[in-house]
Amino acid sequence: MVGSERALRVGFIGAGEQGRANLIPALLQVDSVEIVAVCDRERQRAASLGSLARGAEIFSSPEAMVAASALDAVVMACPPQAHLEVARHVIPKGIHVFVEKPPCVTTSELKSLISLAKEHEVVTGVGVNFRFATPVRRLREVVENELFGQLVHLQIQHPANKPKSPMWESDSTIRSFLLAQAIHAIDLAISFGGELSLATSRHQHADGSVLIHLNLEFTNGLSATLLTGNMFPSFAFEMRAIGSRSNVATLDNLWNLTVIDSGKQGRFSGDGKRWREVWQPSPLDSGYARSGYVGELQAFAQAIRAGTRFEADFEALLPTYHAIDVASESTLEETKRSVANE
Ligand SMILES: NC(=O)c1ccc[n+]([C@@H]2O[C@H](COP(=O)([O-])OP(=O)(O)OC[C@H]3O[C@@H](n4cnc5c(N)ncnc54)[C@H](O)[C@@H]3O)[C@@H](O)[C@H]2O)c1
C-alpha cells in the first residue's frame, strides 16, 4: 500500500491519440499523482508529450522505463497486445496497472492476468470511462432511489461505423468491433445489472456491415437488450432504464438525462401528469471529468492507497468478456451454452 504522504509515481505508456487527447490530461487532474516517465516505442511521440507531463523522463521501451523509474503504477493507452505483454512484465514486480479498454483480446488471456494480479496483490484497472461519466453517475442515483422502484430493464443502443475490418491480430471483425466499441455498453449494462446469468446474441449482415443484438439476463431478474454494430452512420449512445413503479429514465449521448415520472405534477401549470425532469452537465464541467476519465483514474489511485479493489479491475471485466464471447459467436445454441457453463 502507498501512504497518502507522497504522490504516486506513475509511468505512462502509449503516447498515441487516446493518451494525448484524454488519458494524460485526465491523469494530470488526479490528486497526488506524479507522471514521472512517459514511454512510446516511437520515442518522438513520447518526447512530444514532455510539454504536458513536465519533468517526466522519456523512454522508448517499457522494460527500460520500469527498470529505471521506481514506479508505483503504470497507466497505458496502447493496443491490447501491448497491454497484455506489459501487464505480464510489471505485475510480478508489484507494480499496479491501469490499461485502456480492451485489456487483451481473448478471455483466456484475461483470466491469466486476473490470476497473476491476485498472486502478486496488485490493483488493476481497465479504462471503461462510461461507468464514471457524470451523467451515468446521475442515472445510477436515479435508478437506485426507492421512488424509482426496482430496476427491471435496460435498453441500450450503441450505434457505430467502425471498425469494418479485423484489428489487433484478431481474425474477426465482429470480435474487434466488440472489443473496440461495444465493450463500453456491455460493461455498463453489467455494472447496473450485477451477476450475469445468461447472454444470447444474433447478428444481421448486409453490405459488409453487421448489426449485433445482445440480450443479457441477471440473477436479480433484471434484463438488458443491446443493439449495436458498425452499420450506422456515426457513433452515438442511448440508454433507457425502466423501473417497476412506471418510471423511465433515458440518457441521450452521455449528456441529457430525462426522468419520466408517472406521478410528476408541473410546478407552474399544475394540470397534472406527463411532466418530466431533465438534467444536463454544467457547461463548466471539464470534458475530462464529465466523460469519466478523471473519475476512473482518481478511483484507481484511491484503490492503490487504500489497498482495495478498483471497481473496474480485470476481474470485473470477466463477465463482459463472456458476453463478448457470446456475441462473437454465430449460432444461438452455442452462445447460450457458453455462458450457462461458466
Ligand atoms: N476509452 C475510450 O473511449 C477510448 C477511446 C479511444 C481509444 N481507446 C483505447 O486506447 C488505446 C490506444 O488507442 P489510440 O487510438 O490512442 O491508438 P494509437 O495507435 O493512436 O496509439 C497507441 C500508441 O501506443 C504505442 N505503442 C504500441 N505498442 C507499444 C509498446 N509495446 N510499447 C510502447 N508503446 C507502444 C504506439 O506507438 C502508439 O503511439 C486502445 O486500446 C483503444 O481501444 C479508448
Task: List the main descriptive attributes of the protein structure presented here.
alpha/beta, 2 domains, 342 residues, 6-stranded parallel sheet, Dihydrodipicolinate Reductase, domain 2, Rossmann fold
Task: Note down, in words, how this protein is organized.
With 342 residues, the protein is of the alpha/beta class. It contains 11 helices and 14 strands. Helix 1 crosses helix 9 and helix 7 packs across helix 10. The longest helix is centred in the middle third of the chain and has 21 residues. The radius of gyration is 21 Å and the shape is globular. 44% of the residues are buried. About 1% of the residues have low confidence. Bound molecules: nicotinamide-adenine-dinucleotide (NAD).
What does this entry show, briefly?
The protein is 35% helix and 25% strand. With 342 residues, it is of the alpha/beta class.
Q: What is the secondary structure topology, with strand pairs?
A:
Blueprint: E1 8-13, H1 17-27, E2 33-39, H2 43-48, E3 57-59, H3 62-69, E4 73-76, H4 80-90, E5 96-100, H5 107-120, E6 124-127, H6 134-144, E7 151-159, H7 173-193, E8 196-206, E9 209-218, E10 223-229, E11 238-243, E12 247-252, E13 256-260, E14 276-279, H8 287-290, H9 293-306, H10 318-328, H11 332-340
Parallel strand pairs: 1-2, 1-4, 2-3, 4-5, 5-6, 7-10
Antiparallel strand pairs: 7-11, 8-9, 9-10, 11-12, 12-13, 13-14
Helix pairs in contact: 1-9, 7-10, 10-11
The structure holds nicotinamide-adenine-dinucleotide (NAD).
